[in-house]
Write a structure and sequence with these properties.
The structure holds 2 protein chains of 2 kinds.
Chain A (H helix, E strand, L loop, with lengths): L2 E12 L2 E12 L3 E5 L6 H8 L11 E7 L2 E2 L5 H7 E4 L11 H7 L13 H13 L15 H14 L4 E5 L7 H13 L3 E5 L3 H7 L2 E6 L2 E6 L1 H4 L2 H8 L3 E5 L6 E5 L7 H10 L1
Parallel strand pairs in A: 3-8, 3-9, 6-7, 7-8
Antiparallel strand pairs in A: 1-2, 1-4, 4-5, 9-10, 11-12
Helix pairs in contact in A: 3-5, 4-5, 5-6
Chain B lengths: L2 H22 L7 H9 L5 H36 L11 H15 L4 H27 L2 H25 L2 H12 L7 H20 L1 H7 L3 H6 L4 H23 L5 H12 L4 H25 L8 H23 L1
Helix pairs in contact in B: 1-3, 1-13, 3-8, 3-11, 3-12, 3-13, 4-5, 4-6, 4-7, 4-11, 5-6, 5-11, 8-11, 12-13
The chains are: A alpha/beta, B mainly alpha.
């Protein structure tokens, strides 16, 4: 598989605190990569760097490089980056009554010059994308009135209209119930795109990602298949809780279950509250 | 034909009808047939001719473009700041214009016809520059509005301080000017406001997708390749220039930028092209008729137009509050 992104010695330090510390990895075309780790590990920061949000890579506190298709990411304009990366954010709230169609049209922006109006082809593209996520019938519905899962699916459809090769998702399953968590991630898997997403739920990450990156305190502790990354030793080091690795009898995926140690020290009690 | 197209056609017809009807209203009675013959053939009555071309037509046309401009400025500010309460007045534009007008009144009393609008324009731009500077330092939308309100109060305080110690005639002039009036407008004012208005509309059409992208948050817009800070500053600058031009000629006309986009959002839509075009049409119709009320409701006097828009605006506000309470 051809390398799409190359991250090399990426370090971001603010006030002597490492947000990211010497991160190195490659992303190949078609991979589905999950970034996991506790709160504050640097997951979202890494995503922001990968898409050079707010020209972050030119920040004086940031060292290292990111190459997209063998070209330095800083040499891409924000519009060019938007043509390569489609980003689905955690929070997408609007106080105005935007329709699903209005949200979908935003995906056309990187491909449209100034003054450009919508064409019939655009309308067809929007309906096709909504059809893929099963929401074609909601095209004129108010976006705010959709359920959290439906909103995520609309934003994934918007990413399809954006026709970028790489889909970035920041906690796509946050605030979703179990049914919608699986529905959204199954959809992401079926799109045949290169996907990089941060995921809190380790078992979901294992089920839907081919490769996991385990971050802790800004460092990349492990990079590999779910079985290689979700080892009890590594997870205990990161989350401060003992765990067991199992194979799910139904789908054959690597699963982990954490348990409380029999004798807890007061400091560990705090960690339990922090991470569970 | 779609419902949206029909709505726009109806609004354009209503606007043209409003212009024609508003021209016939006033102390000197001019009926529609006289108006039509003066407009499209030869005018038999020279008094009617001069009333039409020197008073009525400039006044109605300025009401048309001022209504459009104020409503559009409000609509742009609301969409770019994602705040339905954003209004050119909240950014200190009128207070700045008031301060400029006050200083011109005190210092340049002899050449006021040119000095007053020019000073008002400079004052308005000055206040916006302060707000934009604070916005650049703070980089937060919620605080941008608060900064606008703070600047507005500060400039109003300076104005009042100057007026308190100023000569009573100058004070009167400024106070009447701040109440807003279309009584002294000329065709040149219409041309100037229209030029700025066209520039703003062209820019909004050019950047409509970028402005729409802001509606789902700054991060979302920036992920779509929008340079959020630059776009917001450009739009704020355009709104300031437009409002300052209108305020310089017409004085303080409040609440149009707040009320009209609110109505358009319910009637037509929230995305910028629909909102700006709808606001232009409804804003024009609204201000034409408010001006008709201003000049025809009292027998031998005019009510300042700003008083009527403020009264209607505050009632409208209370109505919205009541309705949202009923929904909640």
């Amino acid at each position: 598989m051809s390398t799409l992104i190359n991250v090399s010695q990426l370090t971001w330090k603010i006030n002597n605190k490492y947000i990211l510390n010497n991160i190195n990895f490659d992303v190949c075309k078609g991979e589905i990569i999950g970034i996991i780790g506790p709160n504050g590990a640097g997951k979202t920061s890494l995503l922001r760097c990968l898409t050079n949000q707010t020209n972050l890579l030119n920040d004086k506190n940031l060292r290292g490089s990111i190459f997209l298709k063998k070209r330095d990411l800083t040499s891409y304009s924000s519009k060019q980056i938007a043509k390569h990366f489609a980003i689905v954010m955690q929070k997408n709230e609007t106080i105005f009554a935007l329709s699903v169609n209005d949200v979908m049209k935003m995906g056309l922006l990187p491909h449209k010059p100034l003054f450009a109006f919508d064409t019939d082809h655009d309308k067809t593209q929007i309906l096709l994308a909504l059809d893929k996520v099963g929401l074609k019938h909601e095209v004129n519905h108010n976006f705010n009135e959709l359920s959290g899962g439906e909103q995520q699916r609309v934003l994934i459809a918007r990413a399809l209209v954006q026709s970028s090769q790489i889909l970035i998702l920041d906690e796509p399953t946050n605030h979703l119930d179990v049914y919608y968590q699986h529905q959204v991630l199954r959809l992401v898997k079926q799109l045949n795109l290169t996907v990089i997403m941060t995921v809190h739920d380790l078992n979901l990450a294992s089920l839907y990602c081919q490769r996991l990156l385990l971050l802790n305190h800004g460092q990349l502790l492990a990079d590999g298949s779910p079985t290689e990354v979700l080892t009890p030793a590594q997870l205990q080091q990161v989350f401060g809780l003992p765990c067991k690795q199992n194979i799910d009898p139904v789908n054959g995926a690597t699963q982990v279950s954490f348990y409380l140690p029999e004798q807890e020290s007061p400091s560990k009690k705090v960690m339990v509250v922090d991470h569970v | 034909m779609s419902k949206l197209a029909l709505t726009f056609i109806a609004l354009v017809l209503l606007m043209v009808l409003s212009v024609v009807m508003a021209i016939t209203f006033g102390p000197a009675s001019i009926n529609t047939s006289e108006l039509m013959s003066c407009l499209f053939a030869t005018c038999n009555n020279s008094i009617v001719n001069s009333v039409l071309w020197q008073v009525r037509i400039p006044r109605v046309l300025v009401a048309l473009v001022a209504g459009m401009g104020l409503a559009i400025a409000g609509a742009i500010l609301q969409n770019t700041t994602r705040n339905p309460l954003a209004d050119p007045y909240l950014f200190g534009i009128v207070s700045g214009a008031g301060l400029g007008a006050t200083i011109a009144n005190i210092t340049l009393a002899n050449s006021l016809t040119i000095a007053l609008p020019l000073a008002a324009f400079l004052g308005a731009l000055f206040s916006v520059l302060i707000v934009v500077f604070i916005a650049k330092v703070l980089q937060q939308m919620e605080q941008l509005l608060l900064a606008g309100v703070a600047v507005s109060f500060m400039l109003a305080a300076i104005t009042q301080f100057i007026l308190y110690f100023g000569e009573p005639f100058a004070t009167n002039r400024v106070i009447f000017w701040l109440m807003g009036s279309l009584a002294r407008v000329e065709m040149i004012n219409f041309y100037v406001i229209t030029s700025v208005l066209m520039l703003v509309i062209i820019c909004v059409i050019a950047f409509h997708r970028q402005i729409d992208a802001l509606l789902l948050g700054d991060d979302s817009a920036s992920s779509l390749g929008v340079n959020v800070d630059k776009l917001r500053l450009l739009m704020l600058g355009l709104c300031a220039a437009l409002t300052a031009t209108i305020v310089a000629y017409c004085g303080g006309i409040g609440f149009v930028g707040l009320m009209i986009p609110h109505i358009v959002r319910h009637l037509i839509g929230v995305t910028s092209l629909k909102l700006i075009l709808g606001s232009a049409l409804i804003g024009a119709i609204f201000l034409i008729w408010v001006d008709v009320i201003a000049r025809s409701s009292l027998p031998h006097a005019e009510i300042p137009i700003g008083i009527i828009t403020s009264a209607l605006g505050s009632l409208f506000f209370l109505f919205i509050m009541y309705r949202s309470r009923a929904v909640a």
